[in-house]
Amino acid sequence: MRIGGIEVWPPVVLAPMAGITSAPFRVLCREQGGGLFVSEMITTRALVERNAKTLKMIRFDPGERTRSIQLYGVDPDVVGRAARMVADEGLADHIDLNFGCPAPKVTRRGGGSALPYKRKLFRAIVRAAVEGAGGLPVTVKMRKGIDDRHLTYLSAGRAAAEEGASAVALHGRTAVQHYGGVADWEAVARLKEAVPDIPVLGNGDIWCADDAVRMMRETGCDGVVVGRGCLGRPWLFGDLARAMEGDAGRARPGLGEVAAMMARHAGLLAEWHGSETQAVTEFRKHVGWYLKGFEVGGDVRRGLTTSLSLTELRDRLAELDPGQAWPADADGPRGKSSERSHVHLPDGWLDDADDCAVPGAAAELDISGG
Hints:
Helix content is 39%, strand content 12%. It is an alpha/beta fold. The longest helix is centred in the C-terminal third of the chain and has 19 residues, at 255-273.
C-alpha cells in the first residue's frame, strides 16, 4: 500500500488513541511488526501556538520511521498553518486528519465526527491541510456519520480525494454508536467503490489478525486501521505481518511473557517521561488489557494498579504465574464499548449542511489528546 510517497507494508495502521499511542507504546508495537504508527491526536491551534504540553506530545522516538502525526482542527486557516509548520520544521513525515473522534467534548464544539456534516467546511479543511503540507501525504480518518439519519462518509470520502488526500480511513460506526454495537464493514466496501483512486482503509472490530484479513477480503479495502484490538496486545502487529504474508503462525504468549512485556512498557514510559511516578500511574490503564483472559487474583490486580514505583510494579508482576498459558478467550473486545443515546452537537449544527462558518476558538482545545 502506498500513501503518497510512503510505502506501507504490511498495510496496517495503528489508530491514534488519546493517552495510549504515545511513543513508548508505538515502539512496542513497531518492534513486533511493520506498518504505520500514528501519534496521539494533536490540536492544531495548540500546535501553532506552541503549547508546551502539545510540543512534548509530538516527540518521536529516534527509531521511528515513518513519523506520523494526527491533527485535529476546525478552522481551515489554523489547520493549514499547522500542516505548514509540520512540513517546514520537519516534525513528521505524514499527517492524518481527525474527523472521527466521537468524544462529547470534541463533537459539542463541532469537531471530530461532527464536522464532516458541514461538507463545505470539511472540504476547506482538507484542502488547507494538503496545501500546507507541501509534499507530505495527508490522510483522513472519519466515521460513517453522526447517526444513521446523517451519514456523511461517501460524500466526505469523495471530497477528500478531490482535495488531494492520499488515503481515507473509515471506522464503520456512527458517532452515536461510539464504540458500541458492531462495525459496519459493508460501509467500508461502499466507500472503496466510491473512492477507487486512493487507498481506503477499514477500521472497527479487528481483534485479531484473521479479522484484518477477512475485512480486506470482504470489503476490498487496501489496508486496515487497528485501535482497541491492540490494547494490551502489542504483539498483534507481529500477527498482522504474518497474516498478510499468508503465514498461519500467531503469537500466543504465556503469562510470564506478558508480564515481561508489561514491565518493559512501564520502563519505556518512565524513560520517556523522566518520572517513575508518572509512568506507573499512566500504565495502570493498561493492566486490565494485558491480563484479559488470564486467571489473576483480585489482590494481585489491585497491587498492579496501585504501584507507586517500577520496583513495586515489578515485584507485583513477579507474583503472576509465569507458566499460565495464553487463554482461549483472550482475543475479543477491549476498551470502551457502550453506545450513546445521542451525539452532543453545537446548537443548530444540523440546520444547514452547507454552512461554512468556522466554529469558535473554543472548538480547538488549548491542549491535545482528544
